[in-house]
Amino acid sequence: MGTDNIFSGEMTEKQKAFREEYKSNIASWYSGWGHLLSIYVPGVAIIYFCLRQINAPTWFEIGVVLPILVIFNFNEWWIHKNAMHRPVKGMGGALMPVFHRHVHQHHQYFTSRRMTYDTNREWRIVLFPPYALLLFVLVTLPIAAIVGYVWSSNAGYIVMLSTPLYYLNYETFHLCCHVKENWFVRYCPLINTIRRHHAAHHSQPIMMERNMNLTYPITDWYMNTSDLERGLLGHLFNGYDTRYVKSEYQNDQGTELQHSTQN
Ligand SMILES: [Zn+2]
Ligand SMILES: [Zn+2]
């Protein structure tokens, strides 16, 4: 009862005005599905291409995805915390649009109370621009080539496919954080966890320092930047549970969620 509109609560006047302004500025030719496919089609194509090159991999070679998962999880946390939430003025200001887009747009558009969008044209403010995948793939290429050269071509291709795989995982999970409540996102393990985790991150008072992971809250747990007080497994499978929200954050997302679930 009363949980149908969880994460779709009241908007502030400022948020309403920002949304109208943002939507009116989306180019008429923009297509949400086009944007989504411009990320997923090349991503899946690279994964498919790499899989085709892998021949009888050993368990040791397959196992390389585990340390990669941890490294990527740390990268996601670090980039979100240090480039998306802080103005990095170096590198000719190349990262400033990332900061602006995230803090001044994404975080104005979605607040912990109103995390959801209404139409897929609003994917414009959820998904990264298509060149982000290209950039991540280009950074991975030399590393995959070195691994392929010094270890085995199987391991090199596994490293290579990990980047689009993790990136698509990120885009899918983040999109799931901003869709309206439904059976799948509520009950799918890991996705329900990141939905609450990210909604708490969208709470303005704590957004600069808490809940920086967008897929699995592993680094938030390890670096103690989570709003929860629980172990790693508890963090991963927390779902919508607000019982473990640290007392100092109860007034933020925790309280809102409890109100929503009691209604
Ligand atoms: Zn978000
Ligand atoms: Zn953020």
Order of helices and strands: HHHHHHHHHHHH
Tell me about the largest β-sheet.
none
Helix content: 55-70%
Q: List low-confidence stretches.
A: 254-263
Oligomer: single chain
Ligands and ions found: zinc ion
Shape: globular
Overview of the molecule:
The protein contains 12 helices and no strands. It is mainly alpha-helical and 263 residues long. Helix 2 runs antiparallel to helix 7. The longest helix has 26 residues. The C terminus is likely disordered. Bound molecules: zinc ion (ZN) (2 copies). One zinc ion binds next to helix 7. The site of one zinc ion has 6 residues, from helix 7.
In short:
With 263 residues, the chain is mainly alpha-helical. 60% of the residues lie in helices and 0% in strands. It has twelve helices and no strands.
